[in-house]
Design a protein that fits this description.
By secondary structure, the protein is of the alpha/beta class. 31% of the residues lie in helices and 23% in strands. The chain contains 9 helices and 13 strands. A 7-stranded mixed β-sheet has the order 3-4-2-1-5-6-7, with helices on both faces. β1, α1 and β2 form a beta-alpha-beta unit. α1 crosses α9, α4 crosses α6 and α4 crosses α9. It is globular and about 65 Å long.
Length: 339
């Protein structure tokens, strides 16, 4: 079987290589593609140097394509890749809201991937992290309303976002004025309640993505969700404070036990021992950390919790590879016959 990564030299592309190194996905050959700027460079995979090629305008001779080159590239080329016989797992927002395209987090709605017509969408990183924690509670208690406040790392804006945090922090620490190029305002020692474009309703597109995508993944359009998305000066891992109004009352003890047995979740919840989710501990981790589980003081029988998840992993690269693993486990990932 032949696998291709499109956008191999970006932040998510690098994570895809590392996740594939440890993955149970069985394949024989890996092809790497990126923009002309990166063509000819090499990346290591399983001890070998693989040469990055220019992303072609037409079909790619691969059975599985993991795409992380941005929405415009996917919008233009993914249908051509599918016509060439590949299954595409796309990390951009190009197809997330297409009713014909499954939006998948394997621990939550894996079987939806089997309904694909060539393209499977990876959720927004913030959504993926949230639903891993919320889905088990929704199944058990029924979530009516969900209020989310996010604390999102600079890597959510790619390698350029992380570079801006580091270079501009260096400037500030050396008495110089910080500048903003990637973000709306200087990011060092700052918190910016602005991610993506503002919509007519006063919410940003990032905030609306959480609403649209959570409903689609949980297959519940009645779910009422409000989100405030905030950029913070950390390198990686998004954190989220989540308040849940439940149809059936839950105790923190029951929720803790339920989440402890949920796939993709690590419960870190011992405030007396200073144990709770943090970017410092969740970075580089496959599981989403969940803690600070406590009764809601607003919604009777509801819950408040805090979540931290590595958005380059569970929010992007890891989730994409897990979708591919699921397809292969279900016998739904076929290799083409090649001469």
């Amino acid at each position: 079987m032949r696998v291709a990564i499109v956008g191999a030299t970006g932040a998510v592309g690098h994570e895809l290589l590392q996740v594939l190194e440890k993955s149970s996905l069985r394949f024989d050959e890996l092809l790497l593609y990126a923009s002309p700027r990166s063509a000819g460079s090499t990346l290591k995979f399983r001890g070998e140097d693989l040469t990055v090629q220019v992303t072609p305008e037409g079909a790619i001779d691969a059975d599985l394509i993991l795409a992380s080159a941005g929405g415009s590239v996917s919008q233009a080329l993914a249908p051509r890749w599918v016509e060439g016989g590949a299954v595409v797992i796309d990390n951009s927002s190009a197809f997330r809201y297409d009713p014909e395209v499954p939006l998948v987090v394997p621990e939550v709605n894996g079987p939806a991937a089997l309904r694909h017509k060539g393209i499977i969408a990876n959720p927004n990183c913030t959504t993926a992290i949230a639903v891993v924690a919320v889905a088990p509670l929704h199944r058990e208690y029924g979530v009516r309303r969900m209020i989310v406040s996010t604390y999102q790392a600079t890597s959510g804006a790619g390698q350029k976002g992380m570079d801006e945090l580091l270079t501009q922090t260096h400037k500030v620490l050396h008495g110089q004025e910080a500048e903003a190029e990637v973000f709306a305002h200087p990011i060092p020692f700052n918190v910016i309640p602005h991610i993506d474009a503002f919509q007519d309703n006063g919410y940003t597109k990032e905030e609306m993505k959480v609403i649209w995508e959570t409903r689609k993944i949980l297959e519940d359009e009645s779910l009422q969700i409000s989100c405030t998305a905030v950029r913070i000066p950390t390198l990686r891992t998004h954190s989220e404070a989540i308040t849940l109004d439940l149809e059936r009352p839950a105790t923190p003890e029951a929720a803790r036990a339920l989440l402890a047995s949920a796939a993709g979740v690590e419960v870190r919840d011992d405030p007396a021992g200073r144990l709770y989710p943090m970017p410092l501990t969740a970075s580089g981790k496959y599981d989403v950390e969940v803690g600070r589980i406590r009764p809601s003081l607003v919604f009777e029988g509801g819950l408040d919790l805090f979540v931290a998840g590595d958005q380059l992993l569970k929010g992007a690269a890891l989730n994409a590879v897990q979708i591919a693993e699921y397809l292969q486990q279900q016998g739904a990932l076929k290799e083409k016959q090649r001469a």
